[in-house]
Amino acid sequence: MEKKIYIVRCGEVALKGMNKPYFERVLIERVRKALKVFEDTEVKWIDGLMIARVPASVPEDEVVDKCVRVFGVASVSPATKTSKDIDEIGRVAANIMSALVEEEGIKTFKVKGKRADKSFEIKSPDIGRIIGESILKACSNLSVDLHNPDCTLVVDVRREGTYIFRRKVRAVGGLPLGTNGKGLVLMSGGIDSPVAAFMMAKRGMTIEAVHYHSYPYTSQRAQKKVEDIVKVLAGYMGTIRMHVINMLPIQEQIVQNCPEDETTLLVRRFMMRIAEAIASKNGDMMLITGENLGQVASQTAEALVVTDFVVNMPVMRPLIAMDKVEIMDKAAEIGTYEISIQPYEDCCTVFLPKHPVTKPKLARIEKSEETLDIQALVEAAVLSEEIIEIRP
Ligand code: ATP
Ligand code: MG
Predict the structure, then answer these.
(1) Which parts of the chain are beta strand (E)?
(2) pLDDT tens-digit profile of 256-313?
(3) Mean pLDDT score of the chain, rounded to an integer?
(4) pLDDT band for position 87 (50/70/90)?
(5) Of 25, 113, 122, 235, whose CB count within 10 A is highest?
(6) Domain that holds residue 369
(7) What is the mean pLDDT of residues 316-345?
(8) Atom 11, ligand 1: which residue's CA is nearest?
(9) Is there a domain that residue 177 lies in?
């Protein structure tokens, strides 16, 4: 079966020292998993380069799209492999260029020679020049433009052969998933929490999610929206497990027994407690939220301190110092933004106080909670969880 070759470059993994073999092993498994949908695909390390061989019948863009979503991958190039015979390289390069002239109407080009194999007798600039001449001979209507060419062809001579490619598509980067523990993200239907989950996963952390709703005050459609968001994330991370919990019994207790202006904060403290209980049960080492300093009343410095106080587990807030616009751009880049802005209610907005406290005092908040049986409420919430698996 005819195969097409893809060069899959790793980013930060390449900078690792002693642990590099471990990171490389995990990364290649991740790439294999991402490309498993294309039958008869193989992925191997060849001479320090990760090479995927995919049946030529699979459209190039589909393969690239899978590769660029793998954390740890820096860039991908669909390529052609040939021998190290300079005449042969010239012929193959000329064929590639004449096809491009026909398909895309390319008029100018440049060849960039590279020589990873330093024992190869022709130096990089000469490779570029010689192959450029072969192309010019074969394609009479093409001309060389070194500064602003329609197409740059890279000719990379390596120990076991030569790779010729044109496109280098940027990938997500980061570190391979599964190389940096496991975390539980508090996932709302908003813009921020999906970005927070993505950023932690990009550093190698395996992600689980917990979502709180207030059904029937919040609708099933609102939960579907969260599932749609998590589905987009699963496109990068594989199947994601989401714990779904009804907050309404707790919210009702708070509304009946505690000061109105503290409602949001008290609910948030319960969200953290329940998340910690779920995380402990499932081997998650830390919690992740989409909180951001100063964005809303419940995210002032004072409010964050009061929220944090109820848990012992580290709480990661990767968005803490980002501007809203930066977060929105990131969400758009990942592909969650359009879903996040759909107008469905969130459990936080169900009993929204008119004037929420912005500078809460811990002692006062703790006093307000005295009327509640915290442990029983948390245990009941955890027991009522529904677990759903969200596939890419
Ligand atoms: P987001 O855009 O992520 O909803 P936000 O700016 O609306 O964030 P808040 O509503 O104060 O901020 O929520 C802060 C964080 O608390 C969220 O980023 C998320 O991690 C968590 N959170 C809020 N609502 C829920 C929910 N219904 N289920 C799970 N976690 C939630
Ligand atoms: Mg929100």
Answers:
(1) 3-10, 42-46, 49-55, 73-82, 108-115, 143-144, 151-158, 161-165, 169-170, 182-186, 206-213, 240-246, 286-288, 315-316, 386-390
(2) 999 999 999 999 999 999 999 999 999 999 999 999 998 887 789 999 999 999 999 9
(3) 95
(4) very high
(5) 113
(6) 182-390
(7) 96
(8) 298
(9) no
Residue 176 falls within a domain, yes or no? no
Going by alpha carbons, the residue nearest to atom 14 of ligand 1 is 291
Task: Please work out whether the CB of residue 56 comes within 6 Å of at least one atom of ligand 1.
Answer: no
Distances from the Cα of 136 to the Cα of 42, 106, 357, angstroms:
35, 13, 73
Q: Indicate if the alpha-carbon torsion angle 142, 147, 152, 153 is positive or negative.
A: positive
Expressed in angstroms and rounded, the spacing between residue 72 Cα and the centre of ligand 1 is 28
Q: Is the peptide bond before 249 cis (omega within 30 degrees of 0)?
A: no
- One-letter amino acid at 369 equals E
- The position carrying tokens 């915290």 is 374
pTM over 0.90: yes
- Statement: residue 348 has pLDDT above 80: no
User: End-to-end alpha-carbon separation of the chain, Å?
Assistant: 28
Domain final residue, candidates 148, 170, 192: 170
> Which residue matches tokens 């390529």?
79
In a domain, 175, yes or no: no
Of 11-20, 243-252, 254-263, least confident by mean pLDDT is 11-20
